[in-house]
Amino acid sequence: MQETKATRSMFLVRALERILSDKELKRSHNSPLRKACQATLEDIQDDLKAFEPHGGHANSPHTIVEADRYFYAFEMACKSKSPGVVGIALDSLQKMIAYGILVGNAPDSAQPGKRLIDRVIDTICHCFNGVLTDDNVQLQIIKVLLTAVTSNKCEIHEGTILQAVRTCYNIYLASRSPINQTTAKATLSQMLNVIFTRMESQAQADSELIEKIEQEIDEDSEKIRDDADQNHVADEGSVASADGVYAHKQDKEFEHEQHHDRPVAESDMNGKGDEPAVDKQKENVALENEGTKLEDRNIQDHEHKTSNGVAVEDEEDSEEMVREIIDDMVSHIVETSSKENGVQRTESVTSQASTSSRQRLEQQLLSSQSFSHVLQKDAFLVFRSLCKLSMKPLSEGPPDPRSHELRSKILSLQLLLSILESSGLVFRTNEMFINAIKQYLCVALSKNGVSNVPEVFELSLAIFSKLLENFKTHLKMQIQVFFKEIFLNILETNSSSFDHKWMVLQTLAKICEDAQIVVDIYVNYDCDINAANIFEQLVNVLSKISHQNIPGSNLTPGQEILMQTKSLECLVSILTCMVDWSKDLYIDPHSMSHLGKEHNPEGGTPTVPLSVASSSSNINGSMQSVHSEDSSLDQSFQTADNPETIEGIKQQKSILERGIQMFNIKPKKGVAFLQDQGMIGTTAADIAEFLSGEERLNPGQVGDFLGENEALNKEVMYEYVDRLNFTGTEFVPALRLFLQGFRLPGEAQKIDRMMEKFASRYCDCNPKGSVFASADTAYVLAYSIIMLTTDLHSSQVKRKIKVEDYIRMNRGINDSKDLPPEYLTDIYEQIKRQEITLKPTISQTVKGSKALSAAQKKQEMNNIADTAKALMEAVSHVQSSFISTKHHDHVRPMFQLSWRSMLVAFSMGLQDSEDTDTIRLCLKGMRCAIRISCIFGLMLERDTYVQALSRFSLLQANAGIREMKAKNIETIKTLINVAYTDGNYLQESWHEILQCISQLELLQLIGSKVRDQAATMKAVRSAGNADSNQILTRTLGLENKKLASIQESMGETSSQSVVVAVDRIFTGSTRLDGDAIVDFVRWLSKISLDELSNQQHPRMFCLQKIVEISYYNMGRIRMQWSRIWAILGDYFNAVGCNDEESIAFFAVDSLRQLSMKFLEKGELPGFSFQKDFLRPFEHIMKHHTSPQIQDMVVRCIAQMVSSQAHNIKSGWKNIFAVFTLAAAHRDETIVELAFHTTSTVVTDTFNLYFQSIIYCFQDAISALREFSCCAFPDTSMEAIRLIRQCADYVSKRPDLFEKYFGEDTTNLSGSGQPEGDNVWVRGWFPILFELSIIISRCKLDVRTRGLTVMFEIMKTHGDSFKSDWWNDLFQIIFRIFDQMKVPELQLEKSDWFATTCNHALFAVCDVFTQFYETLAPTLLNDVYEQLLWCVGKENEQLARSGVNCLENLVLSNGTKFNKDTWKMTCDTFQTIFKMVSADKLLTWKPGQDGEKTALHLPKARISELILPCLEVAELQTLHLRCILTAEMIECIDRVLFYPTSTKKDDEYNVHIAQNPSAAIESERRHDHEMFDKLNENHLFMMVRCLLVTHDFAKRFNGDNEQRTILWKAGFKGKSKPNLVRQERTSLACTLRILFRMKDRQDNAERVDALLYSVCLNALSYFSSLATETHRDEWTPVLLLLLVRILRLEDKPFITLTRKLHTPLCDLLLFEVKPEVRLLLRRYFLRCNVASLPVEQS
Questions:
Q1: Separation CA 1483–CA 777 (nearest Å)
Q2: Of the residues 170, 523, 1024, 1674, which has the maximum number of CB atoms within 10 A of its CB?
Q3: Which H or E run includes 343?
Q4: Does residue 1407 contact residue 1356 with C-beta atoms inside 8 Å?
Q5: CA Rg, the chain, in Å?
Q6: How far is residue 430's CA from residue 627's CA, in Å, rounded to a whole number?
Q7: Angle formed by the axes of helices 1187-1204 and 1169-1183, nearest 10°
Q8: At CB < 8 A and 24+ separation, what contacts does 1035-1038 make?
């Protein structure tokens, strides 16, 4: 909007007219003012006329210069002593500045180098003259200064703006008007806001401009590169363009940099700013902090001059200010370093200051530290002034709220707090501001941090909180000092008041709400080797406060409760921060269902390894320039956030702390430990470095270690002293420096060695300019100084030494000369002023329980403040790396470090307190702790906290229900909530939770009066000690009158919220992941078993819940259900076998319902889950003894088969197993029901779903086998029929067996099943094997039927069997004869041998004969072995059957035998002969073997009981062998000559004998006889067996005495035993064989010799027979011999008779049968015919 010259001049004219109209102007002393105003009016009128054509904008140069020309009149008005005139002038100036009429950018002619606006502000500020200034004038000053500071039309900077702020500050302090005080305070706040906001805005604008320029450069460069690629030219143009842009950038930057060089800003300020707050009424002045209810504060600045209690500051230019800042910094560093070298040693500043270092530091600061804009300097000056004002000490005595000092301190702290609250990027990152915070603000806070003025203390804590929030990356060491020396000391010491402790706790509560701060504190302090364990100490202190009363603290009970509650709140906040920090790792169980437990995600990206941050000073390092575009963190101090590395550092720190602790107890042990852990080196230099650099060591132990006389200790001491630099240091300060690191030991020898080394080191460092003639002088003087210190400062020394005495005492010590008296006097005075003491490394506050006086408390608080201030000053220039953590993994070690302290705090709170808030906090803390331990898999911590909750719920306590309170109910709710929210992580902790839930259900029963009172009491009395339920016993064991009240008190446990919460746990189980649901089910099952194990009061609560969750989780995948059912299967096994039938019935029914659900889902081939969930039916059926339960199981299975047969796959195995068990039951109903279902399956289901059942075909056959062996014959026979039917299934559908792939791929022969054998392994073999079992187990009729069916199957389907199948099959068959399967009773065994074995033996031979070609190559030997087994049995029928079967087998298949087979057969015959030999008959004596068998029995009992039985058995065995020998003789005869041939031959011999005229025909041979199949070797083997048998018979028959013994013993009836038949038949068979061999002319010589021998022996033996009866028995033999001789041809006849003629003649000497005589006649007749000479016998 355009304004005319007249309009703009209107403000000036009216203002001047108002001044002239004031009546005060009429006085004489105001005449110069009056004249000036009038002259100004005239000049304005002249200007209006002269410059009318130049009317323009108010901001034009003409207007600015014009307005500035007329300021003189207003300046004089401001200097007037009339308040009214001054007020009008100030009001006019305010309007002119506000409307831009008065800008003041023109140079001030009165003060070169200044601008007019500086004189304007100075004039305005001088209007305030202290407390006597008019209130209206004060208000006008505030208004015009606020307008000037906030105006965009004029600029005030540096000293001017500082003067404006200071004036408002002084008005606040000096004014007596509350309105003016409030207005001044609000104006200060608004001024500061404008100053710092403009600085941030300017920095942002510069940053945007630079970014825009860089963007333009990048775009131009890219465009140039594109042009170069297209044209391959224009290189010069590209460079020129880039140079032009760069020059433009430089011009812009230079334009901004000019703010540093020129005092007056010549360009217009077009930046955005706040509009001036202008109002004509005092009550409408803008007040920014009007709502703040802080009291007034006081101020005095060291840069101000004090006049009437009001501070006034001299002006200073910008360069002087910057230089002053640098000087302050350098001086502070030098002062700190000097103190370190002289007296003190800090953990942060270790370098020494010197002249060169001071110059170098100053040069660096001057060259590097500068403000990028004057606005930054304005803000810095204001901030520094406020910091210094806050550091001003208060007057001695009680604080006066109205004193300027206190009000100034409070106001300065309030303003500083407002600056920090609204701080922007520049303020938080600019190095100058950071240094100012370190040097001024932090030092001020360390002093005010223990102030006894609550407001000051509270503001200090608030400022520290803001610093911690926004500046922690720059203030690592300062934060440590504040926490360690102020916070923790105030909380622990008794000298601090309740207000101190309370406000500290409030501040900590706010700090602990910030997760970033909490984690950063742990990482940067507890995980820094050189830092204190802030987090650990903080948690420990809070834990102690939360549950311990502070003795000697004079706190009221109410105050203690408040502190305990607040400390608990802090601990809970810390845990809440940990939970929030790791929330990304938490898996909500109610968000989705998981297959398995998720892996914890990685917390952040990998970073470079973290290096251990040192705490040393970095003053000489390069510092970052202060620019508005600086980053938020100094890149040179950023450290990688690597959790593994940080945890490793923490472990090293723990080792170091442990080593220090050991050193403080026993130094050598501590050093050895640290060396073993690699924390310190093994050399003396390494140990010395450790002792000098570690302040946590006990000084006394350090002194003792250094003073030891061992070589290593002395070497360490030398290295320790040599590390000290005494160059240029006076003797006393050097001695102080030497003694500050340790305490002198008590032994004189140790002190002597240490002082000697000190003196030597001092002289080495100061070889020139020293007053000491030698090191001995320094050594003696050091001793004397120690003695002087003790004398002057010991309370036990009453008479203090005087300086003259001290000088006299040291005479002659300087190489027999005296030291200068003034030198010794100076030493004396130094020691007198300050004794030689150790620098305090830790707070010297007394933290004991002793009550302190007010003076002691004040002194202790002062000590805390002094220590904190000293440490804060020492670390003000330390650069330490600060890690801004991002990883989740830091929470794990944090919690592991603090969980025990927190558990104690929460447990004690729950135990001792009844306060609702306290209980709530404790429970919340425990819930958070459980969450953290769950997330990070900390099992011990999780289980401990859950057990604590369980304990406080009183659901497991022995106290019973009487102690149940509201807090216990809340604990129960918390425990339930934990189970609901953290179920995925609870694992073993489910045990405690579910146990509490189980007990809670019992309490609900009691609370709801479910149980009758009288019945309940009776149950308790009957239970006695057997009831393991303590709650039930203790509660229900109360008096009847108390039970009702207890039930009423337990009503809360049955509340709707609790019931719903418990139900949510079970319904929410569907959202648990795969591992969690397994843990949940496992522990729920265990609790349920505990419930059911109570014999007196079993409960089914958990059993019902298990059934419910099984239904809820039916939708889970099969893999998870397999793991679940691995638990539930065993559980239902146990519950289903419970002795309480109602429980078992419920379990079986529930199992049936679940199984039906699972069966409805079906199952693919190859899986076995059905087998798993049906297995409990099998277990219950097997182990439960109740017929009702077993009947229930069978009916459940029958129902499943009836309704779900089409879905059953692997479950058939268990179904048949149940039926197998049912078949053995004695209850016919159960057996019939099971068999009916089985029969239905075999007859119907097999036809429909045989492909599904084929997996369990063997189990079906096993079930039928068991039914075959049941106690009911009809069922048995029908079962065998079904087995025969199953064989038909196998025969008809062998292809299904070949396609079958199950879990069993091995047969009896081993692994590696050949292709095509599945039908045998899974079809034929089970059938035949089970039939063999039936044959072995069942009664005669059943086993006979089974045997018949078995061999029918073999005969019917054997043609399809392979050779190896037959091998397996015969192994089954041979089991029938196994003696171990035979009943033990002798009668049953005989029956078994006589029936089954006999039948099986002949059936085997029939099958072998039928399939000889297939079986012989592999099984003939086995068959022979089995026949040998039968022959060896002591059963006559079985043994004889074995012989008969051998005979039949040879006769039936002998024609197919080859040479090897006959060899095997003959060997078998020979073996049998040996087995059945009865040689013992020749030597047997009564009682001989019996005595050997019964040596251990008394002799009387042997003859009475044992011997008769043994003799009878032995004689029976011998008799059986005789019978078998005879059978074998006949067997050989029948095999060789066919069964009927021998009989016919004997008949023919008799016929020939009885008919002398009959011609003797050749021998008749049967077509099927086997003689011709055997070679001569085989025949000779037979002959040998027969001859052995014949010889034995002859010897036995000839031993009349032995026969008599046997006869008396009862052997073979009533007459003497004889073996005449064996003697005769064996010889007859031998003769037949030999004569046949002679006819065949096999090995004629051998045959002739043997035949001659046999015949000669036979005739000789006959001649020796004594009895006629015996000779008559030989008649057939003689007939056979004579006929065979007569049948010989002439030549063989002559040859044989030549040798046997005489013995044959001797037959005439005996009375032989007529038949023999007739044959002898024929023999002799033929001999006559032959006319052969007779050889002499």
A1: 125
A2: 170
A3: none
A4: no
A5: 61
A6: 7
A7: 150
A8: 1035/960, 1035/961, 1035/962, 1035/1006, 1036/1006, 1036/1011, 1038/962
pTM of the model: 0.69
pLDDT on residue 575: 93
d(CA 1200, CA 1157): 10
Write out the DSSP string of 593-654: --SSPPPPPP-S---PPPPPPP----TTS------TT--SS-GGG-----HHHHHHHHHHHH
DSSP conformation class of 598 = P
For residue 519, give both structure tokens.
């984690």
Nearest to 1542 by CA among 1418, 1701, 1672, 1677: 1677
The amino acid occupying position 206 is D
Residue 1641: which region, alpha, beta or left (left: phi > 0; alpha: psi -120 to 50)?
left
Distances (CA, A) of 973 to 716, 953, 1081, 1174: 63, 9, 21, 38
Give the C-alpha separation, 1292 to 1283, whole Å: 14
Closest CA to 1711 of 1682, 1661, 1683, 1670: 1670
Distance CA 375, CA 1617 (A): 145
Q: Could you tell me if 1340 and 1400 are in contact, meaning their C-beta atoms sit under 8 angstroms apart?
A: no
1438: amino acid identity, one letter: L
Let me know: does 512 contact 577? Beta carbons within 8 Å: yes
What 8-state DSSP symbol labels residue 1243?
Answer: I
Work out the angle at residue 952's Cα, subtended by the Cα atoms of residues 950 and 955, and round it to the nearest 5 degrees. Answer: 60
Q: CA-to-CA distance for 1490 and 1511, rounded, in angstroms?
A: 7
Q: How far apart are CA 1399 and CA 1388, in angstroms?
A: 16
DSSP string across 1023-1090: HGGG---HHHHHHHTS-HHHHHHHHHHGGGGGSHHHHHHHHHHHHGGGGS-HHHHHHHHHHHHHHHHH
Classify each residue of 89-119 as buried b or exposed e, where b means 16 or more C-beta atoms within 10 Å of its C-beta.
bbbbbbbbbbbbbbbbbbebeeeeebbbbbb
What is the 3-state secondary structure of 1116-1129?
CCHHHHHHHHHHHH
Angle among Cα 87, 88, 89 to the nearest 5 degrees reads 90
The C-alpha atoms of residue 1402 and residue 1444 are separated, in whole angstroms, by: 9
Cα 266 to Cα 814: distance, rounded to the nearest angstrom: 73
- Locus of tokens 């002559």: 1694
* 465 neighbors 511 (Cβ within 8 angstroms): yes
Distances (CA, A) of 14 to 7, 24, 41, 60, 167: 11, 17, 10, 22, 28
DSSP, collapsed to helix, strand or coil, labels residue 1685 as helix
Q: What single DSSP character describes residue 872?
A: H
pLDDT the model gives residue 1508: 58
448 close to 457: Cβ distance less than 8 angstroms: yes
DSSP 393: P
* Separation between Cα atoms, residue 1638 and residue 1628, nearest integer Å: 15
Which residues of the chain register pLDDT less than 50? Answer: 1-3, 54-66, 232-319, 321-323, 325-326, 329-369, 593-639, 839-849, 959, 1010-1038, 1301-1311, 1380-1381, 1384-1387, 1490-1507, 1732, 1734-1737
What would the pLDDT profile of 1049-1076 be if each residue is shown by its tens digit? 566 677 788 888 889 999 988 889 889 9
Distance CA 559, CA 503 (A): 12
Question: Are the C-beta atoms of 1589 and 1529 separated by less than 8 Å?
Answer: yes
Residue 488 token pair? 């923790």
Neighbouring CB atoms inside 10 A of 1564's CB total: 10
Q: How far apart are CA 557 and CA 62, in angstroms?
A: 76
- Cα angle 306, 308, 313; round to 5: 30
Indicate which residues carry an active-site annotation: 747
Three-state SS for 312?
strand
CA proximity to 1224, closest of 1178, 1258, 1255: 1178
Consecutive H or E run containing 198 = helix 178-231
The sign of the dihedral angle between the CA atoms of 1623, 1628, 1629, 1633 is positive
